Amino acid sequence: MPLQVLAAGSLRRVWPPLMAEFERQTGILTETQFAPAGMLRSRIEAGENCALFASANMAHPQTLLAQGKALAVQRFAGNTLCLTAAAHCVDAQSSWLTLLSNPALRIGTSTPGSDPSGDYTWQLFARLEAEFGIALRSRALRLVGGPGTQAVPDGMLAAQWVISGGQAELMIGYRSYAAALKSHRELRVFEIPSDYNIQADYGLALCDARAEPLQAYLTSSTARKLLMLYGFGA
Hints:
By secondary structure, the protein is of the alpha/beta class. It is 34% helix and 24% strand. The chain has helices at residues 15-26, 37-45, 59-66, 96-101, 116-132, 158-164, 178-181, 212-218, 221-229; strands at 3-8, 30-35, 52-55, 72-79, 81-86, 107-110, 140-144, 170-174, 187-191, 200-206. The chain has a five-stranded mixed β-sheet with strand order 2-1-3-10-4, with helices on both faces. Strands 7-6-8-5-9 form a five-stranded mixed β-sheet, with helices on both faces. This is Molybdenum ABC transporter substrate-binding protein.
C-alpha cells in the first residue's frame, strides 16, 4: 500500500521529481495530496490517514507532535518571499518598495492561519510598516490559500492567476516560484532584500513509522539538491 503523504501546496512543482527519485531508490510507492499546510494539519487532527506531512512551516508539525499525532519532526528545506507585479505597473524607477508603497496598487496575498505563506507575508508587512510607516496589512487582499478562497487553476501559479485575472496588481509569494514567474511576459518579479525578508522553514511530521525511509530521504543530500534546483534554500 502506498504511503499517504500530505504536502504544502508550495511543494507541488518539486514533489513529483522528489517522489520519483525516492521510489526509484527504495521501491516504496507514495500518494500525495496538496493543500495549504494549515488546512492539512486540521485534516490530520480530524483523523485523516497520513504517513508523512510536509509543511511550509515548523509550527504545524510541532503542534501535531505536541498532540501525540506525530512521532518526530524535522526541518528539511527553506524559502523566502518575493514580490510579483503586473508589467504595466512597472517602470525604470520601480523597486519592490516603491511598488508596495503605492496605495493605488492592490496587494494579493495568501490567507494567514490557513497557509504559512500568508503568515510569513503578515510578518513581512509588520516589519515594513514599522520600518517605513506604510500601510500594508489593511490593503492586503487574501485571495488564495484559505477555506473560502477560489482554487488556483491547474497549471497556473498563484501570482500569475491573481495578476493576469485582474484581481490585484501585486502579489507576495514564495521565492521558489520566481524563476517560473519570470517566464511570463506580463509579470515582473522583484527580490526582497534579506534585511527585510522572512525566512520560511519547512518541516516534516512523521505520522507513521512506515514513512521513516521517506523522512530520511527528504533530509538527504540528494533531496536537498533537487529542492535547491527548484528554488528552495538549504
